[in-house]
Amino acid sequence: MGRILSDIERDAGSFSTASMNRVFRPLGLKVGLVSRQADLLARLGKETEGGT
User: Fold this and answer.
1) I want to staple 24 with a disulfide (CB 3.0 to 4.6 A). Which of 16, 29, 42, 49 is the partner?
2) CA distance 36 to 45
3) DSSP states of 1-52 as a string?
4) What are phi and psi of 21, to 5 degrees?
5) What superkingdom does the record give (predicted)?
6) In the chain, how many domains are there?
């Protein structure tokens, strides 16, 4: 994992989702996508809170 961290810091190479997840796992994080559309985020949040 040290090599992956070094390459990320130097912005060298292309990384798989699995590699990035291994880097972020100790922090309790994982790679994902987030919508930039506020209305979509609000709707998704309401659906999650409502149990649907």
Assistant:
1) 29
2) 14
3) -HHHHHHHHTT-S---HHHHHHHHGGGT-------S-HHHHHHHHHHHHHT-
4) -65, -35
5) Bacteria
6) 1
Per-residue pLDDT tens over the stretch 3-25:
777 888 888 878 888 988 988 99
Q: What is the pLDDT of residues 20-37, one digit of tens each?
A: 898 899 999 999 988 788
Residue 32: domain span:
2-50
30 within 8 A of 21, measured Cβ to Cβ: yes
**CB-based contact 5:23 (threshold 8 Å):** yes
Q: Could you give the CA distance from residue 52 to residue 34 in angstroms, rounded to a whole number?
A: 19
